[in-house]
Request: fold
Amino acid sequence: MSVAVDVGGTFTDFVYMAADGSLRFHKRLSTPRSPELAVIEGIAFLGGAEEVVHASTVGTNALRGQEGLELPRVGLLVTKGFRDIIEIGRQNRPKLYDPFFEKPRPLVPRELRVEVEERVDFAGRVLTPLRAEEAEEAARRLEELGAESVAISFLHSYANPQHERRAKEVLLKRFSYVTASHEVAPEPREYERTSTAVVNAALMPLLSRYLQKLEEGLRELGVRRLYVMSSSGGLVDVREASERPVQLVESGPAAGVVASAELARALGIPDVISFDMGGTTAKAGTVLNYEFEVTAEYEVGGEAHHGRIVKGSGYPVRFPFIDLAEVSAGGGTIIWRDEAGALRVGPVSAGADPGPACYGRGGKRPTVTDANVALGRLERLLGGSMELDKGAALRALSELGDPEQVALGAVQLANLEMARAIRLVTVERGLDPSRFSLIAFGGAGPQHAMEVAEELGIRSVIVPPHPGLFSALGLLLADWRFEARLPFPADLEGAFARLEEELAGKAGEVDYFVRYADVRYEGQGWELTVPIGRPARLEEVRRTFEEKHLAVYGFRLEREVEVVVARAFAVRRRRKASLPRARREGEVRERGRRRVIFREGREEAPVFLREELPMGAELEGPAVIEEYDSVTVVPPGWRARVGELGELRGER
Reply:
């Protein structure tokens, strides 16, 4: 028996898979100050389990400074002359004309950065050996200065890591948490590699303790195994997660994209957009030919502008991530007016505590959920067990003007913001969103999906069964996924063969391998990540790279291409949940009618219970379809049909 747990900013979601593959669902408010409490309480409510698969945003929240998640004092051991590498960084300036802009606070204060005399060149040749006595002296200094965790980043360690290995042996005599840069980012660019090692070192104590407390609490409930979703869309065990927590930064959002890819495969729709709108944010990703897109670099703890990560505002991490765009447009996102009186949505969220005004938990500021309540689109949550206070929602919205006009304007602004996020993962990647189907989930996603699709010219929207718990379901659909990489491979096929041999030793029985490469034109500063076929031929790599370069940038160059990093993933399939099937027969019955406000005006909309709708049932918009964990709104001009897997297919 397995339970998947997705810890979000507002709700913690549970999907329970029994031994026969049948599913049960549960949802409860998150406990942000101690996120493991909601997980343990939910598992106890479900009666325990043998296996728990977990997705969490604890790492991201800690880097963003969430109260109660304090980062440790981190030390840094570097090659002599590179003490200030993490502070100098790159020339990126996120706010070009802002004279008051401040760089993100370095995760390692200057007094905790220690230099040692050693040097390896770009080819891996040792120019100056590392002396053990100097490494021991550096370790003693860091201990005296109160470091709890240490990162090591020596120049060109990706080409020859022997000095980092020797330094780590010395440091482990004094410290429990040590990260060597070649273990988490074995590739060129010393600033990005150092930043990745430092982020990993900063998260190690926090995530290790969190996972330990969670594991201990679950063990008392009879749970034998705990696994964690990685940012690249695979599962890792607790040991791997504790040693390389940098790979968990986007753990939660990754699960939704994995679920979208599996649903797309089951429905036979190769190209889909994953659209996940929860209580705090909305996320978008693309699935091409049933495979989710992967990117090699991400900035954690930084700013996002209309879904785009603002370069230079956070901490760069060189690790595989599912390619996602994220915006502050969730159900709990606060609506406000700026100094000029213009209506604004986000980025601040009401979260789970106190939450939207309509929750009746003390929230006074209006949110997107309050707007949907005021517009008649939403009345209750959790199958009716959580009634929403429309009067409280209207009072909160009245502070900003006519409540219905404010609500309608706020929903339209949120829809525009979410459409921008989808454009980032489609139009800006050279993809036409109108040829995709939109898979909409999250507790709030189905309320907005069809209106967001209209903004983008998308004609097909799919709402999966149990959309509010779909990311948690994705954890039960994920495979084991392990990653390795090699910089500047001279023999491309030989490099992949070597990586796959290494991964086979780590992952055990492997079902298949996935290959990628970071490729650029010679002389370019940055690369594009492209899929690689078997066998790996440079002419095929060039063709794939130039097609992507043309789609992304609009031009090609008459110049040789080079592979900067070869990446391989080992995938091991695991027993997965069976997607539920729709009822074969039954009549379509209205459960009531409700006045709902759309852009076109007030409409009298029928209300249906989703679990009562049989396969093949067709509903003309406007309509409202309620279920335990979400509400689907079908606007005028759209129709919804129930598919074989119980999915709702919206068509314009």
